[in-house]
Each structure stands twice: as C-alpha cells, then as structure tokens.
Amino acid sequence: MGRVIRGSRKGKSLIFTAKTRLRKGAVKLRAVDYVEREGYMKGLIKNIIHDPGRGAPLCEVVFHDPYRYKLKKELWVAVEGAHTGQFVYAGAKAQLAVGNVLPVGKMPEGTVISMCEEKAADRGRFARASGTSCMVVGHSDDGRKTRVRLPSGTRKSIPSTCRAIVGIVAGGGRTDKPVLKAGNNFHKYRVKRNSWPKVRGSAMNPVEHPHGGGNHQHVGHPTTVSRAAVPGQKVGLIAARRTGLLRGGQKLKK
C-alpha cells in the first residue's frame, strides 16, 4: 500500500480548508422580492472594503426593508466606477447605469455585466472575480432566454429573469504585476487556503504518488487516467478526451 496522496487528503483533512475567520461575509445580490420583480429599490453604497483572500473589492449596500422599519445591508462585488455615497437601483424598472442591478432580459445586446445569476434568484454566480465581466450577446424571440458570453469566452443561455450588475468587476489588472518572489505568493495563499507550494508528483517517491520514483524525474507512463480509476490512482489528465497542444485556429460559428 502506498501513502494517501495529496488529492485524497484534501477532501478529509482540515489542513486544507479555506481561511474564513476574517472574511467579510457571503457576497450575494438582494433576495428577489415583489419590489424587484415589478419595480425597483434604491440602495446606498455605504462603504467599499477589502475582503481577505479576494482580489476584488466589496461594497456594502444599504437598502430599506420594504416590510419593516429597518435597514438591510447587502455585500456586493464592487464594479469599476462605484463609489461611496452612490445611489444604486435594483429591480426590473431600474435604469441601465453602472452599479445598478436588473434582469438580463431588460438589457440591450452588448451590455457589459458582472455578478450574473445562473438560475433566476440564485443571487449571483458568474463574473465575480476581479476584472471579470460577462456580455449580453442576444435574446431569444420569445424573450424567455438570454445568451451571455462568460469570462472564459463560452456562450451560455440563461433565463431572462436572471439579474446582474451593470459594469465590470473592480480590481482588474491584478495579475499584470509580476509576483517577483516566492514570499509574495506565500502571503497571497496564506489568507486563501493551504494550496501552495505544490510539490510535483514526479518529484516524489513511488510510495507518495503514481508519478513518483525512477532514476531521473520522469513519469514513465501516459498521464491520462480513466474516469473509473480508484482515488489513489486518479492523478494527471483525468478522463481526457484529447491531450496535447490545441492546433489550428478557432472556427467561428455563424
């Protein structure tokens, strides 16, 4: 029997869990209610804050509770151009302005959006990392579905009732600055989770990894591995349909 490999330990061990003690809270859009579906709600950006382990800044948006005399705080990802003291509007009747939240079905084609929902009322799934954005590509004829280009370049059809913030996420260009030294990476991952530094499998002993051992560091067999492989064996290119470099240009679908 070999040692339990790193990938299998991650599921079980508390060493690898995310460092969440100092984080500011869950980042979500407002919960959908009658006001958002039929009209709009006015909110105020009270503060723009840093969230440890996240590249993008967050903004605290304060709304009046529609049913009780109190204020409700929401944590959103800050978009570029948002500032404290700015009024933002959320709802189907809100205007198309940077920082506002409205259903993608109400946006014209070419609108740049972030914090986009995948399913209606899930409170924001796509384009939440710093500098990312989606784009509204088109609407279906019946107005039920909207086509959106995701940050990866993939196009996806989502229900038109899904909401999103207008604008791109702030904190872009974060990766343009070179890391320069290992200490910078150390501090970056220290607040995220224990995922750095990573020892290569081929640098290990045979007991610790399927790629380990041998004179000279080499794998010694194809790195593709079947979907049905047992956990200790499942490293490398899992259930790969193809491997190697992508050759040839991308053909645009008409």
Helices and strands in order:
Blueprint: H1 6-12, H2 34-38, E1 41-49, E2 58-64, E3 71-77, E4 87-90, E5 101-103, E6 112-114, E7 134-139, E8 145-149, E9 155-159, E10 163-166, H3 182-190, E11 224-225, E12 237-238
Explain what this protein looks like in three dimensions.
The protein is mainly beta and 254 residues long. It has 3 helices and 12 strands; from the N terminus they run H-H-E-E-E-E-E-E-E-E-E-E-H-E-E. Helix content is 8%, strand content 22%. It has a 6-stranded antiparallel β-sheet, with no helix packed on it. A 4-stranded antiparallel β-sheet has the order 3-2-1-4, with no helix packed on it. The longest helix is centred in the C-terminal third of the chain and has 9 residues. The termini are far apart.
Describe what is shown at a glance.
The chain is mainly beta and 254 residues long.
Reading the helices and strands in chain order gives HHEEEEEEEEEEHEE
| Helical content (DSSP H or I, runs of 4+) | under 10%
Rg over CA atoms, rounded to whole Å, is 23 Å
Report the mean per-residue pLDDT as an integer: 95
Main pleated-sheet profile: 6 strands, antiparallel
Contiguous low-pLDDT stretches (5 residues minimum) are none
Strand content: 15-25%
> Helix count, per DSSP?
3
Structural class: mainly beta
For the biggest β-sheet, the strand order reads: 5-10-6-7-8-9
Cα-to-Cα separation, first versus last residue: 54 Å
> Globular, elongated, flat, extended or rod-shaped: what is the shape?
globular
Give the number of DSSP strands: 12
